[in-house]
Amino acid sequence: xxxxxxxxxxxxxxxxxxSFKKYGIDYEFINIFATMPDFKEFLRLRDASPAFAHAKxxxxxxxxxxxxxxxxxxxxxxxxxxxxGLEPIWPEEADRAKAEIAAQCDLRQHNx
Length: 112
Hints:
This protein has 112 residues and is of the alpha+beta class. It has five helices and four strands, in the order βαβααββαα. The chain has helices spanning 11-22, 36-48, 53-58, 77-83, 92-108; strands at 2-6, 27-31, 65-67, 73-74. It is globular. The model has no long low-confidence stretch (mean pLDDT 92). It comes from Lactobacillus nasalidis. This is Glutaredoxin. InterPro entries: Thioredoxin-like_sf.
């Protein structure tokens, strides 16, 4: 079973979860903001894996991060679906989360 590290406020995490549910992909969602141990587990994973190099270069968190049973880590959940002939979906809930983040960034008067 896949482990998916993410948050319930991240637009990409919301879309990833909705897509995995739609296609019946078995996964465990680990909300990295739910508990400190979950957050630390994600940070250890992110700090140790080269799979997050691109995210770090971009200044992003690297979520959703998916870990296969064999330990392989990937952050391109859309590519994962497309490789299986499945089309990722982007639900309205993800659009709302994206708009909320943009509004928060505007309130802070900097780019997020």
